[in-house]
């Protein structure tokens, strides 16, 4: 990280970049798992893929594939906003300890969410993990709105 | 907002951060509404959720849930690019009045889009709101491409 | 691009902004194509749209529309993380040649992916294009994790 960017960030940027980028890598892993489940269950979304892997009858839905797709979609609904909110929040000179708690809750919440989704853990583990990660995101959003409104 | 970040932004960054973060919060609200509709219509995507709320027969599709999911997906297709384009555009030293008009059109277009989608308003209100928000996004994208190409 | 932002970026920011914004515009084109296919095949997702275009029987699924939606969703799974990773990576003072190769591979991979998807090209062209674009994204993610961990 070059000095100027770090100097702007009030020291919490590295922690944000670590948590956020690890979550992006986690999303890539979900995509790889989806592909593996498609191959193992022989359930492809496109006729051209099915043809390559045995025949047109394998262009079909599958419950486990759909589960992977839902997990990935939920990541897009929650982790992508965090990439934006966390980056902006890191430049608002937050208290470092408070900021680290924010990032850690998002990181842990989303990791547990994926494990609970793909592992079919009993309700409401997945929903609680979702909420755990959304609360710090909502907190960061409200702080950004507040700071932005003050400087209009 | 710390002074250095503001100094870089040419004064339009606060307006962008306000509009964009309010749209992220609006997306969070759509997610909450989706959950409420799932509970009220007893239509869950996962067997483990259905079991917790009455039985496996409630793992089923529902037209109103699908509508919420489509509204949320359309937000992901349009608001997420705005988070990126608007942030970069804010650092291109745009005319403040022109920039504010861009941000306001995106904000209003996407708010009306969600109301029209979830409220099942008659066509083409939703499509017009979609187009209203996409035009300033396309404008910002073209200005970024132009500036980036000049500095290659 | 104002001087301060360029000075921070180590000269690779313009190339990143060009590749990333062109990919966002490409996603906008996929959205327009989806709308055109809906109109041509008379296959709408919402009853209110179907009513405006001939009658409630046109609220229905269509294979070609679904294909457009899958292409767009795959873009959201891959191009959105690139918007974040590439921006952060551009501020890590990467070797300009190496950085340009990263951005170009993502750009070419995602362009070919869309052509292969919408053009129904034979497998595994689309999958290879997907992998071609994901490898530099994974490389940027690992470099960000490394730099962030060093500065914790």
Automatic annotation (TrEMBL), chains A, B, C:
Give the UniProt subcellular location, in the record's own words: Cytoplasm, Perinuclear region; Membrane
Identify the InterPro entries for this entry.
Answer: MAPEG-like_dom_sf (IPR023352), Membr-assoc_MAPEG (IPR001129), MGST1-like (IPR040162)
SUPFAM superfamilies attached to this UniProt entry: MAPEG domain-like
The entry's keywords: Cytoplasm, Fatty acid biosynthesis, Fatty acid metabolism, Isomerase, Lipid biosynthesis, Lipid metabolism, Membrane, Oxidoreductase, Prostaglandin biosynthesis, Prostaglandin metabolism, Transferase, Transmembrane, Transmembrane helix
Q: Which Gene3D superfamilies does this entry report, sorted A to Z?
A: Membrane associated eicosanoid/glutathione metabolism-like domain
- Provide the transmembrane region boundaries: 12-33, 76-92
GO (cellular component) term, any one: perinuclear region of cytoplasm
Q: Which GO terms describe its biological process?
A: prostaglandin biosynthetic process
Q: Name one Pfam family in it.
A: MAPEG
Instruction: Please state the Enzyme Commission number of this protein.
Output: 2.5.1.18, 5.3.99.3
Query: What reaction does this catalyse?
Result: (5S)-hydroperoxy-(6E,8Z,11Z,14Z)-eicosatetraenoate + 2 glutathione = (5S)-hydroxy-(6E,8Z,11Z,14Z)-eicosatetraenoate + glutathione disulfide + H2O; 2-glyceryl-prostaglandin H2 = 2-glyceryl-prostaglandin E2; prostaglandin H2 = prostaglandin E2; prostaglandin G2 = (15S)-15-hydroperoxy-prostaglandin E2
Required co-factor?
A: glutathione
Q: How does it sit in the membrane?
A: Multi-pass membrane protein
**Pathway linked to the protein:** Lipid metabolism; prostaglandin biosynthesis
User: Entry's PANTHER family?
Assistant: MICROSOMAL GLUTATHIONE S-TRANSFERASE 1, PROSTAGLANDIN E SYNTHASE
As for what it does, the entry says:
Terminal enzyme of the cyclooxygenase (COX)-2-mediated prostaglandin E2 (PGE2) biosynthetic pathway. Catalyzes the glutathione-dependent oxidoreduction of prostaglandin endoperoxide H2 (PGH2) to prostaglandin E2 (PGE2) in response to inflammatory stimuli. Plays a key role in inflammation response, fever and pain. Also catalyzes the oxidoreduction of endocannabinoids into prostaglandin glycerol esters and PGG2 into 15-hydroperoxy-PGE2.
Protein name (record): Prostaglandin E synthase
Please spell out the taxonomic lineage of the organism that makes this protein. Answer: Eukaryota, Metazoa, Chordata, Craniata, Vertebrata
